[in-house]
Amino acid sequence: MKLVWSPETASKAYIDTVKSCEIFQESGVAELVSAMAAGWNAKFIVETWSHGGPIATSIGLAVASRHAGARHVCIVPDEGSRSEYVAALSDAGVSAEVIVAGDAAEEAMEGLAGVDFLVVDCRKKDFARMLRVAELSQRGAVLVCKNATSKNASCFRWRSVVDGSRRLVRSVFLPVGNGLDIAHVGAIGGGAVESSGPAKGEGRRWIKHVDQRSGEEHVIRK
């Protein structure tokens, strides 16, 4: 089985995330990430988060997990982060599993097998190592780096974290928020991430996303 894109599920998650994140003064990152996770029908969503970090994307992932019927796990460094994260999601009417990893974040990530949607924060110095040790699903995975314009990501390359036995299908940088760097990793055996839509080159369309807070307009080709 491979990842298959569902525009209907993506749209539902996007709209619900917009409603859930209305109170946050943030860019449209949460909505886009939520739509991607739900649209690719992810079954195991993993993210990293720590005290004081923006929470909207985490709420978006929780919304996506509900639409996709996915398991959603967040790795945090300490009990304070766990309490803050759980409270924020509860206020938004959603929830997720939380792992308090302490200084063993990489070991915690290695223990989560079958990840098919992973979100890390480029502001954290260990973000590339977390990507490298992740046990990805055999059906492929979508990897997302948020805050991709940070100094820590200046020399980052996807080839440095994707195992040689896996095919990097494609990657793209989106100028949304502080930057989203996204990669699709193929299924075991060389399969690509597939879409349930028209074949390549047929019926391609452009999707326009307008950041309601900044007024910025982003156009993405599907």
From TrEMBL:
Superkingdom per UniProt: Eukaryota
* Entry's Gene Ontology BP terms: methylation
* Pfam family for this entry, one: DUF1442
> InterPro entries given for it?
DUF1442 (IPR009902), SAM-dependent_MTases_sf (IPR029063)
User: What's a single GO MF annotation on this record?
Assistant: methyltransferase activity
Alphabetically ordered keywords of this record:
Methyltransferase, Transferase
Q: In its UniProt entry, what is this protein called?
A: S-adenosyl-L-methionine-dependent methyltransferase
